[in-house]
Amino acid sequence: MTTLSTNSSRPLWQRLLLRRLKFIGIIAALLIVVGGGSYVFAPQWLMQANTMREAMNAQLEKHSVQAGDTQWVYYEGGQGPTIVLLHGFAARKEVWLKVAPMLTAHFRVVIPDLPGWGESSRVPNASYNIDNQAARLNDFVQTLHLQHALFVGHSMGGAIAGVYAAEHPQDVAELALIDSFGLKFKENDFAKEAMSGKDPFIYDDRAGFLRATSLAFEHMPNIPGRFIDVFVKDNIKNRAFIESTFNELREDSQVNALQSRLDKLTMPTLGMWCHDDKIIDVSALESLRNGLTHAPAISTSVLNGCNHMPQMEKPQEFSQVLTSFALQH
């Protein structure tokens, strides 16, 4: 006498459901194995996948264009008035991905890797100081027809945006300077070390990365160890460029590159700072206000609970201030 199996005695819908659940379980297990293996042996793949996810969420597409001596790689997305976002020293376009979704909802957003940084090209032995980067930015603007945009620069990118705006005021509708380099400010510990020649943005291990990161963040981001290893490897690979550019920016003409041109800014200007910025002290905001003798409108905003990276630590507040400024003008 033959005994029916438990499976065959189940209704068809149950058997189909069990098969689907088993299939999903196998796929999940494979993803765990592949993901775990990628984390251990190729963490850069996971980082790239996450970056692609964030860019897609922000409705950004990656493009490249030859402008001047640089092959520029940049994100672009959204519709409306144009905003150009420029990152700071030893950074890249991805630092803007947290605020990008809130901006592409109202604006056309263009986010380049500045020449020499990120995925944009680099000319060996060329100068990448503020003045030369502002000239390269003009090549990018003219090539993509970005005239009459709102230019937003953070830290080193602020000095570049400001110098560009001073030299090409007819092409800049508004200017936003975020914790910007190139202004006078109350000397802090960071400035003392930097001017003595110590570059805090180079490191050889995880501890060095965490030390450098703590200079810029009020609250340290939670970054997995193997991801930190990718940053360390990239830092070592680009060590010569980081050091040479850092030394260029220590020159007097660069430290005050923006300060000496403030009277040439003739467009509405926003200054946004973190109250507790340990790199560019918030006193720079007063220098900015006092120097803007020909700007038709001056707006200032101080954010609490962040250090030097408001676009990453306070993305919602950052976006609200920037959007309000843009819409006012």
Q: What would the keywords be for this entry?
A:
single chain; 329 residues; alpha/beta; Rossmann fold; 2 domains; eight-stranded mixed sheet; 14 helices; 8 strands; 47% helix; disordered N terminus
Secondary structure layout:
Layout: H1 6-9, H2 12-41, H3 43-57, E1 61-67, E2 70-77, E3 82-86, H4 100-104, E4 108-112, H5 130-144, E5 149-154, H6 156-167, E6 172-178, H7 189-195, H8 206-216, H9 225-237, H10 239-249, H11 252-255, E7 269-274, H12 284-291, E8 298-303, H13 310-313, H14 315-328
Parallel strand pairs: 3-4, 3-5, 5-6, 6-7, 7-8
Antiparallel strand pairs: 1-2, 2-4
Helix pairs in contact: 2-3, 5-6
Question: How would you describe this protein?
Answer:
- The protein has 329 residues and is of the alpha/beta class.
- The chain has 2 domains: 12-40; 42-328, Alpha/Beta hydrolase fold, catalytic domain (Rossmann fold, 3-Layer(aba) Sandwich), CATH 3.40.50.1820.
- It has helices spanning 6-9, 12-41, 43-57, 100-104, 130-144, 156-167, 189-195, 206-216, 225-237, 239-249, 252-255, 284-291, 310-313, 315-328; strands spanning 61-67, 70-77, 82-86, 108-112, 149-154, 172-178, 269-274, 298-303.
- Helix 2 packs across helix 3 and helix 5 (130-144) crosses helix 6 (156-167).
- The chain is globular and about 85 Å long.
Which residues form runs of ≥5 with pLDDT under 50? Answer: 1-6, 29-35
Rg calculated over all Cα atoms: 24 Å
- Helix and strand element order: HHHEEEHEHEHEHHHHHEHEHH
Please identify the top-level CATH class of the largest domain: Alpha Beta
Quick structural gist:
The protein has 14 helices and eight strands.
